[in-house]
Design brief:
- The protein has 401 residues and is α/β, with parallel strands linked by helices.
- The chain is built from 14 helices and 15 strands.
- The chain has 2 domains: 146 residues, Aspartate Aminotransferase, domain 1; 235 residues, 3-Layer(aba) Sandwich (Aspartate Aminotransferase, domain 2).
- The strands form 4 sheets. A 7-stranded mixed sheet has the order 2-8-7-6-5-3-4, with helices on both faces. Strands 9-14-13 form a 3-stranded antiparallel sheet.
- α8 links the parallel β5 and β6.
- α5 crosses α10 and α12 runs parallel beside α14.
- The longest helix is centred in the last third of the chain and has 18 residues.
- The N and C termini lie far apart (49 Å).
- Bound molecules: pyridoxal-5'-phosphate.
């Protein structure tokens, strides 16, 4: 007999991005040549400086507990980075390092939310935001955006959405899954609204270095008032291809960091000592050629999608995802080579078929609050992208109404 799980555990859905990844890996394990466009991690190597710093930490026996909020050298280096790259001034005491930005975000929600508190969430959103908010007894409130608004919220929409129950706004620029970015002017316009409302701002800037023309601008830069109630979230996973090392961080006013640090001290104690040293080694090694490579891949994928009838896709300004709208194919019938017919009712079904029939793995938009879209990652080689797009173009010729 299994005793009942907690209400929290029962309410939580597994990460859809990780579950499509698991299905993909299972197919690959059977020997099938799958083009995996579902991954949310760069295909580049972790910089050698980071790996060597990690190895040096192990050999030097730097393998013990550290300060709950992370070693001071790393927090100091992050403060320098925030100043140089982002024009943000933070002291090391205003920075907390965690086991990935995912933990950073959870620390924030647990620290600020009381039951029923609402968090405004521009939609489409990254899959873990609503789940984490709910885990902390908060209520995610969608702020819908579409291709026609460049997947961005407007100041008017924000003003109208804020109520006495609103505790925070989440901004993710560049965005996962849409790649949308707010220009400095657009960020200033949102900031003007926020000046008049006492709410927190969670600014997830993890894709900040992967931008293709639009300048990244942190909302914490807009004014002192906003900086005081903004949590700037960032990490090493995407910029330095260090997803497995699990290092993320938050910069915020000291009382907020102190509260998160207390919470962290009772959950994970501290981020891995070895990974912290590796992160220290990584800072300053970002190779701008990465951006050029991603830009070329983005242009290729967007160009290929434009040639598939019925698919529309905006040109993302950052991150490494495209988010095409495939609603034209919902309600249509797919006929396989052996004449089996399947009526497609949802993007989930479409992605499943794309995987099993054409061996291309993509993530359905449903988990991102966008059931008419799918997410393709271009964090894979051009060779794989060529193969994947060829297969996709062939796949969509099998549909009829
Ligand atoms: C928007 C966004 N924020 C945060 C994260 C978490 O990154 P990590 O926990 O690897 O630092 C991810 C990872 O996919 C992401 O896409």
């Amino acid at each position: 007999m299994t005793l009942p799980l907690s209400r929290r555990a029962q309410g939580i859905a597994p990460s859809p991005t990780l579950s499509i990844d698991a299905k993909t890996k299972a197919l690959i394990a059977t020997g099938i040549d799958v083009v995996n466009l579902s991954v949310g991690e760069p295909d580049f190597r972790t910089p050698d400086q980071a790996s060597l710093a990690g190895i040096a930490a192990i050999t030097a026996n730097f393998t013990k507990y550290t300060d709950a909020s992370g070693i001071v050298e790393l927090r100091r280096a992050i403060a320098e980075k925030l100043l140089t790259d982002n024009g943000l001034t933070y002291k090391p005491e205003e920075i907390i390092v965690s086991t990935g930005a995912k933990q950073s975000l959870y620390n924030i929600f647990v620290t600020i939310l009381n039951p029923g508190d609402e968090v405004l969430l521009p939609t489409p959103y990254w899959v873990s935001y609503p789940e984490q908010i709910r885990l902390c007894d908060g209520v995610p409130v969608d702020l819908p955006t579409t291709e026609s608004t460049g997947f961005k919220i407007t100041p008017q929409q924000l003003e109208a959405a804020i109520t006495p129950k609103t505790k925070a706004l989440l901004i993710n620029s560049p965005s996962n899954p849409t790649g949308a970015m707010y220009t400095p002017q657009e960020m200033q316009a949102l900031a003007q609204v926020l000046e008049n409302h006492e709410i927190y701002i969670i600014s997830d800037e993890i894709y900040e270095r992967l931008t293709y023309g639009c300048e990244h601008y942190s909302i914490a830069r807009c004014s002192e008032t906003l900086r005081a109630r903004t949590f700037v979230v960032n990490g090493f996973s995407k910029t330095f291809a260090m997803t497995g090392w699990r290092v993320g961080y938050v910069a915020a006013a000291q009382p907020l960091v102190k509260a998160m640090s207390s919470f962290q001290s009772h959950t994970t104690s501290n981020p891995s000592s070895i990974s912290q040293k590796a992160a220290l080694g990584a800072l300053g090694t970002f190779d701008p050629r990465t951006v050029e490579e991603f830009r070329a891949r983005r242009d290729y994928v967007v160009g290929q999608l434009a040639e598939i009838p019925g698919i529309t896709c905006s040109n993302p300004e950052g991150a490494f995802y495209v988010f095409p709208n495939i609603s034209h194919y919902l309600g249509q019938t797919y006929t396989s080579d052996d004449k089996k017919r399947t009526r497609i009712e949802s993007v989930d079904q479409l992605c499943e078929l794309l995987l099993t029939e054409s061996h291309v793995s993509a993530v359905p938009g449903t988990g991102f609050g966008a059931p008419r879209n799918m997410r393709l990652s271009y964090a894979t080689s051009m060779t794989q992208l060529h193969k994947g797009m060829e297969r996709m173009r062939a796949f969509f010729t099998h549909f009829s109404s």
